[in-house]
Amino acid sequence: MCGIVGYVGRAQAAEFLLEGLRRLEYRGYDSAGLAIMTEQGDFALTKTVGRIALLAEAIADAPTPGTCGIGHTRWATHGAPSVPNAHPHLGGDGRVVIAHNGVIENYATLKERLAADGYRFQSATDSEVVAHLIDHCLSKLEGDEPTPKTGAEIQEQLQTAVQMALAQLRGTYGLVVLFRDHPDLIVAARLGSPLVVGVGPDAHYVASDASPLAGRTDKIVYLADHQIAIITPTGLHVSHRETGQISHRVETLELAESDMGLNGFPHYMLKEIFEQPQSLADTMRGRLSDEDATSVFGGLNMSPQELRQVNRIVLTACGTSWHAALVGEYLIEEFARIPVEVEYASELRYRNPPVEQGTLLFAITQSGETADTLAALREMKRKG
Ligand code: GLU
């Protein structure tokens, strides 16, 4: 899952989109792209393989004025890193454009069906089916329903089209959608892949995490799974798949612009190495009590009696968190004298291990979003 940004307002969209993608670079990616709604009423797509700096150069060579747009950094799951496979992807005859984070598991079946209906695919990605599917659902609604007249009716029709498409997807998505015939409007939806909306006085921002918003606005709305948002320069309407329109909570973003970017370091690894003392202090703040000479783990909601019944601990994680778990194994065994095992979450989720009474599981993830770790957690919860 990589990066998504979106902007709808009065300023030039490309400026926020490029800066936003730069701030999402730390997540890693292989290609990037922007789609901007031009003043002539169509989409200008710019895509490059490699660094955001190349995308910025391409935009500088051929500027695309416009006040609404979306951008994406891709980490390929389906199809090689290439310009045609980079997002955003057009749908139908180009009246829809999308950027997608995540994986569409049933894309092959959908692609076959859409191809039989005459849709032409330009990429090898799973994501492109979402663009064509939304176009397909919109065409169906246009055929079945009277033409919507008011702004509210139009928005409802677009939202319904996206919802009809989402209902056919199996997999995960953070998704942003633009419609050629309805400028100044972004539809955003999420399931298993994060999305936030930044609320400004006469602009709205979308991003796959909060970092692009720092310095633009401190008002942030965290979308939850199965929520869909209709975003215009001055309006934000959030609905839930099952309950319909809901009132969203606007929270305060506590992230300074100086926390972002390289801050004078030549690259992120060096910056993070120098940040380690501060990061460790931040991590432990509030979790050590000098007064009682003990640690205070707010998140561990277990009584001392329950803890005494634990006779085995499983730590599950992926990547860097898995390495942290290996260190934890040594520490817990040394201090708590309880046997510990460290398991790759990507293995644990598909194995069928016996889980005895008295087993305590810790699932560790830096982002809180690691799909394998969440699945392992769900599976172990299911086993009691
Ligand atoms: N599955 C999509 C692709 O391969 C999106 C990957 C991503 O989240 O960056 O294009």
Overview of this protein structure:
The structure is a single chain. With 384 residues, the chain is an alpha+beta fold. The protein has helices at 13-23, 52-61, 107-116, 128-144, 151-166, 268-284, 304-308, 319-336, 345-348, 371-382; strands at residues 3-8, 31-37, 43-49, 68-74, 89-91, 96-101, 173-179, 186-191, 196-199, 204-207, 219-222, 227-231, 236-240, 244-246, 251-252, 288-289, 294-295, 312-317, 340-344, 359-364. β12 (227-231) and β13 form a beta hairpin. It starts with a strand and ends with a helix. Glutamic acid (GLU) binds at residues 1-2, 74-79, 100-103, 125-127.
The whole-angstrom Rg is 23 Å
How many β strands by DSSP? Answer: 20
Structural class computed from helices and strand pairing: alpha+beta
**Amount of helix:** 25-40%
Helix and strand run: EHEEHEEEHHHEEEEEEEEEHEEHEHEHEH
Termini Cα gap = 30 Å
Oligomer: single chain
**DSSP strand content:** 25-35%
Coarse shape: globular
| Biggest pleated sheet | 8 strands, antiparallel
What is the mean predicted local confidence, pLDDT? Answer: 93
Number of H/I helices: 10
Which ligands does the model contain, each kind named once? glutamic acid
Low-confidence parts: none
Query: What is the strand arrangement across the widest sheet?
Result: 3-2-4-1-10-9-11-15
